[in-house]
Amino acid sequence: MSQKKKKIALLFLMFNMFITMGGIGIIIPVLPSYLEIFGVGGQVLGFLTAIFALAQFLFSPISGDLSDRYGRKVFIVGGLIIYGIAQILFGLASEVWLLFLARFLSGFGAAFIMPPVMAYVADITTVEERGKGMGMIGAAISLGFMIGPGLGGFLATVNLHFPFYLAGIVALLAGILSFIVLPNIQPQTSGAQSQPRENLITQLVRSVKTPYFILLIVVFTFSFGIANFQATLSMFLTLKFDYTPTDIAIVVTLGGLSGVILQMFIVDKLFKKYGEMKVILVNLVVAAITMVLIIFVSGFFMILLVSTLFQIATVFIRPAVNTLISKFAGADQGFAAGMNNAYMSLGNMIGPALAGVLLEWKLSSPFILGTFILLGCYALAYGWTRKKAPALMHAEVK
To answer: Residue 54, by phi and psi: left (phi above 0), alpha (psi -120 to 50) or beta?
Structure first.
């Protein structure tokens, strides 16, 4: 593939991830008010977030495996179409069970977008370019997650249903454009076509034997901790400070914008200067500190500041972990990307479900739990690195 086609492909992959994460982010400021229509609260919010992650957990490994066999494009396009339909269904829902069905289908669609996209990036980049490519995808993810809440909060002032309709229509258009424009390349795998297809349990067992297994555990634990914050912040601010969807949108959007700007301009430089593992470790500590601080601060500016620092830290962690896993994966990029998304989804599933229950018990409890989880993730990553991979503390994996 020529450099020009690579750039076009990368731009479309970024666009698709932007649309996917924008659709996820768009519900954050709207959901507390939207759920009032159905007479439900924090516990249902947590389980709605969890069922999205459950679908991702179940189907991400399948998506990664199939994309290794048959190419990335068909699954990216199909995932966007399913995702778009599910978002529209969420806006049309008249019963709580339909909300759960729509969120499950959204997670199913996202599972067939995210692993193939990350594997596609690995296919069209060299090892030296990998960090930059993953950083650009990470920036698109963060930008979507940033603009989504802002747009959701704005559109919610007109109609609480409309943000979901818009997210669905844009995802459908992205699927059509990807089908027309995105190059269809062959995955850079060795013998993937001839290997027997593995079920989820078999793939999870195989992941334990990979050289990057500890990184998958890091993905799970930090996703668990972060999901507590992301899933409950909107409800926390609504219940404690009576924030409106617009107020919540500002808090989430400005934090995300700061993270995206820093990620676009300095994350690749940080990887090259300090190595991905140091970036992960430092930002796990920052995320833990800011998560517990959100309990004690008050006033819009202080809440905005703490939330922004938390989001910047998490924006730096994701591409660092993705890059390391991709470098360790070799030819099995689809499998690695699927496992990456599966472990992330498992953390995103358990975290919000537990946080929703804890939120109705005591407002501060999800953030306390999340802080301990993030600190535990730091201890795990630091201990493994010092014992098994000390080179990661000094330089990138070659």
So the answer is: alpha
